[in-house]
Amino acid sequence: MEVFEKTGQPKIIETKQKKHELPPGLWVKCKQCGEMLFAKELANNLKVCTHCDYHFGMSAPERIAMLADEGTFEETDADLVSVDKLGFTGVASYTDRLKAYQRQTGLNDAVVTGFCKLNGHPVSLAVMDFSFLGASMGSVVGEKITRAIEAATEREIPVVIVSTSGGARMYEGILSLMQMAKTSGALARHAQERLLFISILTHPTTAGVMASFASLGDIILAEPKALIGFAGPRVIKETTQQELPEGFQTSEFLLDHGLIDAIVHRKQLKPTVGKLLDYLGNRRFTTRKNN
Amino acid sequence: MKWFTLDFEKPILELEEALRALRKQSEEQKIDLSSQITQIEQKLEALRKDIFEHLTPWQRVQLARHPRRPYMLDYLQRIATDFIELHGDRRYADDRAIVGGLATIGPHRVMVVGHQKGRDTKENLMRNFGSAHPEGYRKALRLMQLAEKFRLPIVTFIDTPGAYPGVGAEERHIAESIAVNLREMMVLRTPIIAIVIGEGGSGGALGIGVADRLLILENAYYSVISPEGCAAILWKDRANAAQAAAALKLTAKDLLDLNIVDEVIPEPLGGAHKDYDVTAANLKKALLKHLDRLLDLDEAELLEQRYKKYRKIGEFARSTPRKRRMAARPEAAPAPTES
User: Fold this and answer.
1) A280, β-bridge pairs
2) Average pLDDT of the residues in B288-310
3) Mean pLDDT, residues B188-199
């Protein structure tokens, strides 16, 4: 017995009624599992999805708040800003883009540097921010990172750099390419003094940054499922006409190939770095006394 | 390869052809055409000057990639004696895109390392079009450290479209192989001269390019990204490569103005491929001049100068610090990925 009569195709009735909209910023959709997450809860969970452990991007100030011991971070060189040395004439002017990103992010450029304590250890900390022009490395990023490393050499303390980057900043042409040599050179001097450099790779870290300081850590840690590599996957596919292996250029892929020390869940990041600093944070040969 | 000509070289070639025909006619038919011949010769000279003294950045990029352009081994043949090639990175393979070995240039015994492109398809497959894998950069470092041990100066020849973007290259960590070279070249206790002879393709060029002196041939280029790559990202179309080439300030003269290179080595009119011997002689002269000066420096001074050379590169200004929002903020839309 049919309860409902067949009435042909159901009609879509247009309604004038306004769609019920969620207040912006209150809920966030997880990019991996699609779950709707309460923004506040997500922020309290270090921006890690409470359902699937997906690591959302974090701003530099958020990361600093997570890594530095409370109230210890002293920012340095906050006033350095990029200039359009090349007079870059493209579809949009470099100066305009810089202004737009400065407004949008509240940052002067793509890296924040300073001194802080991390689990009690004094460190020189540099944190990149992908939301500023893809955290591309131009003169300011290169200079601030170099100064952070040089200051660490001077103070005889470790450097911790949290990287994310699309690579060198095209708008500054050759000047940005040379920042790769400048930052790596500063690390050479830091290393000669037998000081520790911990490089933390986050999603995504590629190209010029990956081919310079980010790959030079005494210890290299990565967040789960971050895209890490030299060339972009699309470029590789186009050049080689080859199918890319599964999980290619992820943190897990790099770990399997022996290219990084460990993958660390964001919640474990500070304790892990703290432990590494306990072991390697000063140059005295230490022995742990057994009672 | 004889037939290969760039678009802007064509008017010159047509005139050269006409001149040849006229001379032949004059000889065979025993007629005096000298006034016409002189006229064409003058026209040709003027045309050459007009074209090659007003090259656009994009035309120079094309010259730098000219299939008949002299490569590293062409220069070695002309400026060096007793070259002994040394192969392999002792870990995985011998990358033929980078050649290295011992050579004598003028009065100096040196270590030479450089990118090498192929002249034809077969050779290009072997050389991978001058795009090196991690093995190439590791071989380069091994040889440079060998040079340091035995106090030999290092001369590197840069000529690559870029490090190779491939699966194997990523698996064996091309990024790290370049990064380590940047760090180690900064502190190698021996003079280093790098010469961009053709294409200076981004990180793949810099990977053997940290030096006390950086020289560049007149029509070579050195850039953070290829003009095509830049055009694809900023103009969303590779066809805008000419505009990108101009915007990137990648020519020898631009780089001299930006204080990135120390000297521009002149090429014969028409480009290096018009006369290998003249280009090689110019290169040798510049190379020996700088090498002599570097050998006068003591080690500490050499290293301090090298560090400062790179330390001072960068242009920035100071502003009043902006108010910073330390609290969480909604994630911004992902910015376009830069090179």
Assistant:
1) none
2) 97
3) 98
The reply to whether A255 touches chain B by the CB within 8 Å rule is no
Measured CA to CA, the distance from residue B146 to residue B86 in angstroms comes to 11
CB-nearest to A216 from B169, B179, B187 is B179
Residue A287 predicted with pLDDT over 60: no
Q: pLDDT at residue A19 above 70?
A: no
Question: How is residue B239 written in tokens?
Answer: 């066809």
| 3-state SS class at B105 | strand
For chain A, give every residue range classified as CATH 3.90.226.10. Answer: 57-290
Question: In terms of DSSP bridges, do strands B108-115 and B98-105 run parallel, antiparallel, or are they unpaired?
Answer: antiparallel
Q: Are the beta carbons of A257 and B171 separated by less than 8 Å? A: yes
Q: How far is A65 from chain B (nearest CA, A)?
A: 8
Instruction: Choose among A121, A50, A57, A165: nearest CA to A270.
Output: A121
Do the beta carbons of residue B47 and residue B18 sit within 8 Å?
A: no
- DSSP letter at A290? P
Instruction: Check B322 against A106: CB less than 8 A apart.
Output: yes
**Domain spanning B62-311, CATH class:** alpha beta
Burial per residue of B98-137, b for 16 or more beta-carbon CB atoms within 10 angstroms, e otherwise:
bbbbbbebeebebbbbbbbbbeeeeeeeebbebbbbbbbb
Question: Per mean pLDDT, which of A241-250, B15-24, B244-253 is the most reliable?
Answer: B244-253
The dihedral of CA B231, B236, B238, B241: what is its sign? negative
**Mean pLDDT value of segment B76-98:** 97
**Both tokens of residue B33?**
């055409």
Looking at CATH, the fold of the domain delimited by A57-290 is given as: 2-enoyl-CoA Hydratase; Chain A, domain 1 (3.90.226)
A 111-150 residues inside an 8 A Cβ radius of B: 130-134, 136, 139-140, 142-143, 146
Residue among A43, A142, A174 minimizing CB distance to B249: A174
Q: Do A184 and B331 touch (CB under 8 A)?
A: no
B325 close to A (CB below 8 A): yes
CB contact under 8 A, B175 and A230: yes
Q: Sketch the domain layout of chain B as residue ranges.
A: 62-311
Q: Which residues contact A66 (CB under 8 A, 6 or more apart)?
A: A46, A58, A266, A269, A270
Query: pLDDT-derived band of residue A286, with 50, 70 and 90 as boundaries?
Result: low
Q: How much is the mean pLDDT over chain A?
A: 91
pTM across the whole model: 0.90
If one counts every other C-beta atom within 10 angstroms of the C-beta of residue A14, the result is 6
Q: Indicate which of A170, A235, A249 best probes the interface with B, i.e. most B CBs within 10 Å of its own CB.
A: A170
Interchain contact, B248 vs A170, CB within 8 Å? yes
What is the token pair recorded at B335?
């910015």
Distance CA B258, CA B249 (A): 9
b vs e for A15-50, b when ≥16 Cβ sit within 10 Å of the residue's Cβ? Answer: eeeeeeeeeeeeebebeeeeeebebeebbebbbbbe
For residue A201, give the nearest of A192, A210, A190, A189 by alpha carbon.
Answer: A210
**B1 interfaces chain A, CB cutoff of 8 Å:** no
- Judged against a pLDDT cut of 80, whether residue A8 lies above it is answered with no
- In one-letter notation, the amino acid at residue B333 is A
Is the peptide bond between A204 and the residue preceding it cis, with omega within 30 degrees of 0? yes
What residues contact residue B130 under an 8 Å CB cut-off, 6+ apart?
A: B71, B97, B115, B116, B117, B118, B159, B160, B161, B199
pLDDT at res. B331: 47
Amino acid letter for position A70: E
